[in-house]
């Protein structure tokens, strides 16, 4: 995704603040028109006005709560029908504070609806539209807890593991169709998600906390390098390759006609 080729529209969800707002700014700087999606229409419009003035791009605001079925369908249909959209940043998500036994059914449903259902529906719409056009870029924002689920609570960690798996699977399904797919796995990033989930980022070791601008810049660099999975804080790419190699080594023995000897 080179700077010179970015002349069409990027759809960014969760764009009113944090990671989504920074992606919007960076993509506008690269020359993209924008379609910004989030619940807070006023914050979206303020950001849109700023980006239009600063970068001279067209910015449209689409206020939508992706947990609500009607709003999700509205964004999904726009993505399927609007062929000017060539980039999707599937960023909208929420976190929880507390164990699975402690959180409410409503909290669980909200995380699943936004972090899994909405992400999947929009990824599906993007895949269909992009495959038909033979071009497009889909960026799914996951988390390092997809690889280290014990670091955080069960619902959020599982939802981000789903996003990683979805992205890896989509990469295979969309192979040779001219579509770039990327999963971004941030570590702890200084955004409003902590405050909204009842956590205090200032209580976390500052050596573990990355500023949001640096995280997004690293993620976009990974995209430019055609990475399927980008872990912004991982010093050695070889460590990820070793992880994949170890996983692949399991492959021949994951499904066999008889149980392993240790179970007999």
Automatic annotation (TrEMBL):
InterPro entries: NAD(P)-bd_dom_sf, Sc_DH/Rdtase_CS, SDR_fam. Keywords: Oxidoreductase. The keyword Cytoplasm does not apply. CDD domains: SDR_c (cd05233). GO terms for molecular function: oxidoreductase activity. Gene3D superfamilies: NAD(P)-binding Rossmann-like Domain (3.40.50.720). Belongs to the short-chain dehydrogenases/reductases (SDR) family. This is SDR family oxidoreductase. It comes from Pseudomonas vranovensis. The lineage of its organism: Bacteria, Pseudomonadati, Pseudomonadota, Gammaproteobacteria, Pseudomonadales.
């Amino acid at each position: 995704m080179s700077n010179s080729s970015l002349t069409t529209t990027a759809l960014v969800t969760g764009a009113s603040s944090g990671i989504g707002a920074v992606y919007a700014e960076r993509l506008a700087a690269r020359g993209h028109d924008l379609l910004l999606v989030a619940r807070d229409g006023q914050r979206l419009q303020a950001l849109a006005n700023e980006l239009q003035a600063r970068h001279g791009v067209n910015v449209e605001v689409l206020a939508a709560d992706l947990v609500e079925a009607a709003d999700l369908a509205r964004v999904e249909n726009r993505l399927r029908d609007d062929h000017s959209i060539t980039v999707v940043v599937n960023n909208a998500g929420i976190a929880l504070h507390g164990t699975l036994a402690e959180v409410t059914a409503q909290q669980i449903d909200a995380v699943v609806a936004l972090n899994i259902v909405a992400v999947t529906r929009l990824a599906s719409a993007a895949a269909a539209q992009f495959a038909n056009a033979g071009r497009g870029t889909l960026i799914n924002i996951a988390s390092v807890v997809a690889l280290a689920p014990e670091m955080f609570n069960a619902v959020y960690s599982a939802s981000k593991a789903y996003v990683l798996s979805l992205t890896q699977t989509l990469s295979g399904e969309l192979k040779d169709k001219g579509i770039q797919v990327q999963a971004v796995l941030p570590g702890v990033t200084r955004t409003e998600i902590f405050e909204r989930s009842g956590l205090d980022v200032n209580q976390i070791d500052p050596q573990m906390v990355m500023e949001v601008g640096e995280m997004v810049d690293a993620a976009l660099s990974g995209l430019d390098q055609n990475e399927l999975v980008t872990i912004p804080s991982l010093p050695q790419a070889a460590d990820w390759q070793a992880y994949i190699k170890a996983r692949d080594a399991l492959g021949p023995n994951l499904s066999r006609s008889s149980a392993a000897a240790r179970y007999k």
